[in-house]
Amino acid sequence: MKKLSKCIALPVAVAFAATLAASSTFAQSVDTARIEAGGQNDWLTYHGSYKSHHYSPLAQINASNVSNLGVAWIHIPGRSTRGLQSMPLVADGVLYYTGSYSRTFALNGATGEVIWSYFPELDEALIARQTHSPYNRGVALGEGKVYVGTMDGRLIALDAKTGKVAWDTKLVDSQKLTVGFTGAPLYAKGTVVIGSQGGEWPGRGPIFGVDAATGKKKWEFLTVAGTDEAMKTWGNDSWRTGGGGGWMPGTYDSETNTILWGTANPAPLYDWSGNDFKTQGARPGDNLYTTSVIALDVDTGKLKSYHQELPHDAWDFDSAVGEFVMLERDGQKLVVHPNKSGFIFVYDRNLAVKNVWRLVENINFVKNIDPKTGDLIGRRDFTAGKVESPPLCPYIGGGVSWNAGSYNPKTGLYYKIGQEWCMTLEVQKTTPVTAPQVQLNIGADFKIAPPPGGEIYGHLDARDPVTGAKKWEVRFPEPPLGSVLSTAGNLVFVPDSRGVVHAYDAETGTELWNHADGTGHQGGIISYAINGKQYIALTAGFGGMLSDDYAATFGGVYKSMPRDDGALIVYSLK
Amino acid sequence: MNLNVKALLPAVMAAWLTCAMSAAAQQPAAKAADNDAFDVEQLFATTCGFCHSDGGRAAGRGPQLMDSARDDDFLRNRIKNGKNGAMPAFGTAFSDAQIDEIVKHIRSLKPRS
Description:
The complex is a heterodimer. By secondary structure, chain A is mostly beta strands. Chain A has one domain: Methanol Dehydrogenase, Chain A (8 Propeller), CATH 2.140.10. Chain B has two domains: 1-35, no CATH class; 39-113, Cytochrome Bc1 Complex, Chain D, domain 2 (Orthogonal Bundle). Chain B contains five helices and no strands. In chain B, helix 4 (72-81) packs across helix 5 (96-108). Chain B starts with a helix and ends in a 5-residue tail after the last helix. The model of chain B is unreliable at 1-33 (pLDDT under 50). The interface between A and B is large, with 55 and 50 residues.
């Protein structure tokens, strides 16, 4: 076997400072307290604030004037291989976002003028061997730095003023494990947290805590068999290739000094154990802590509590969605977390189940999930062979995807995209391929299929986040894949897959405005204000593990839609 | 050559673990995969099928491979070198002989009964 290569190139900053015409301060003062407060002019962390509401209290753009919304400026990041998936952040008038290959930009949020850019020198030969690559979903801000992960396994801190590298820490041996970082990091209390890709990749799916000042690794939590208790849930040493990971940013609970994070699925995705999954098949047992929500001490990475949403996940319906929507109901502090299966879990702050409800109609991998206990009822565990009648629902793309919904405290409604689609599959016994470089481990051939008796579609739901009671729904012929934004202007924004961004009345679902961005959306959308003017910023640019399905499945506009292009588009009132 | 991966992969796994992350258990080195244990049908259910739907029989994230109009050289080259943003390069994961086996398998694909 070859020795580990040292060819991971050292980062080379191509950062440069440009003249900033406007007088802007920078993100020097972003800290835990400020992110917690979530000031109305900024968007300081991936989920808006630690409450994960993806909500803006700005109301200058509102239901009565949204028809006057127009493009204020755009920015083209270049080299948008597989589109743009980033959630922009804004602090003190400066907008930070990333493109593919972790290209990082600081822009004047009012004009789009480039303040600095940073293109890390990456191991391109490695990236050419990766499947879930080279997209990037954004940065974290804190302590005067901008933090970004890379596909070759590094976490990099940039000076927020200049874009120069403050530190560059190698965390994952991507040469062997193939995976890296696509998700945005999370900053909290002097620690930068970032989770590795994993899931169908045989590995142990680490989540890292890194010292924000020095770049030194403080802790590492293995989502596969990370404790003695968890090790017992992986029969036949299957933990060695268990998958897991935590590839989307979670959030931080300051009251308990806890990181809340969702974990990815075990490998192989599909198991052939049949009903005897505790003792038979590829990975006998519950497979902790995959497809779980976990609470880690931010200072030590020590596990404080967890709930495994799908014990022995045999369907790739993981918990990696990063939203932990924090709210209060009847004096109780609750956390709402969507599972990829289309079930929405409601927890208390210690991750004890308080309710489980269905966002999507087409679910048949279980008959139900007990809303009181979270127990799976009527599991559908496969043996090797065909699964056709009925097809497995939802499709591998999930009842929900990884992008975020939005909770609006003014309406009390949770706006979330649901996806209605299914799949046929033929489960096959596989053995993990781990040399010379780790390869995917699926455990089946599969094909997308419409729901029984119906067509594929997507829907934006406005629901009570705790009970799931539906107030209204808007349907789309193809599931939208971007994030959702709601605002105090009684608006809900949905960037759809065809490339149109829609604004709906948050109370009724009536469409009030739309605009074509020229290509499909699959990234973030935020709102911020500078000098008293409100902006809406979003990324457009299609391509990636889910949107790559659309041309073959839906045809139409997707046949000609580029998968190597994208733009940041910023709107304001004309 | 139709080979059985099962016999090989425990050794392969051990090889990987030697180089795995610091927190992973360290295992003795072992030789990498050779062509005596290469089951292409299983390879589709392991890796290729994530993009090539129904084991390569239908278009999905990647194109349909069954009845491909591309010639063998094109397929070999694409598997080996990939296509930026669309298909990973497998030239370091698989030997030329193994890639030949993959091409043969693609040519043998038939609709499922």
